[in-house]
Sequence to fold (263 residues):
Amino acid sequence: MKAVFSACLVAGLVTICGNAWAAPCPRPDALGTARTLVVDAKTTPRVGLKSFPQTLPLNDKEVVLTFDDGPLPATTGKVLAALSAECVQATFFVVGRNAEASPQMLKAMVRQGHSVGNHTWSHPMLNQLGTAKALADIDKGFAADDAALGPVKPGAARLFRFPYFASTPALLDDMEGRGAVVFGADLWASDWLKMTPQQELDLLTTRLAHARKGIILLHDTKYHTAAMLPAFLRYLKQNGYKVVHVVPAGDTSSTPSTGRAAD
Fold:
C-alpha cells in the first residue's frame, strides 16, 4: 500500500498534516480521514476539556474518534469493520491484559492505520493506588502493547488515557516526563450505561451538535456502541463533519505504510 504525503506545518500546539497518508478507498463516497495531527508531549502534554484546560486545535465540525477498554474480539472487530468501511482512522486506548489476550487485534488496528495508546494493564482507579503501584500498572500496560506491536522508536511519543480520568499531579508529571500525551475527552456518549444503539446515537449526536467539534470518547467493548457506529459515521458524513486522526510524534506504527509525513 503506497502512502501519499503532503507537507506539514507547525501551528501552535501540534504538527498539522493535511492527508498525512492517503490510500485507495473502496468507497468513493466514504467519510474518510480529513487530516492528521502529530502530537508531542512537549507541546500537548494533556488534552481534553473534560479533564484539562486545553484540547486539540480542531476546527469547527472536526472530531477525533477514540475508543477505550479493548480489544474485545467480538465487539472490537465490528468497530474496526465499521471504521474500515468508511476509511476512517481512530485511536484505541487498550487495556494491557486485553492486549495480551488478543495481540492480533492490536496488529489489525495498526494494519488499518489506527493509533494505539495505553489504558493501563488492569483498568484500576489509579488515584487510589498510590504512585508506585499506579506506575507499575501503567508500565505493565505499555509493556503489553510493546509485546504485541514491538517497541516504539526511541524518543517517540506515547499516548495514554487514565481509566475513569482518575489522574494525580504526580502521575501526570510522570507521563509528561516520559513523553506521553495524556488524553481526556471533550465529549462522550456515556456508553458505559445500558442503552440501545439508537439511544446512544441520539445522545451522542445531540451532544456533538452542541459542542460542534472535539475528542469523542467511545468504548469498543460495548455491543451497543459497535452496533451504533455505522449510523454515527453516516451522521458525520451527512452533516459535514470531518474526522481528524491523531498520531504520536516519531511513531510510524500507526500508518499503513513504512513512512510518516515530514514535520
About this structure: The chain has a mean pLDDT of 88. The two ends are 22 Å apart (CA to CA). The first helix runs from residue 73 to 85. Residues 8-248 form a domain with the TIM Barrel fold (CATH 3.20.20.370).
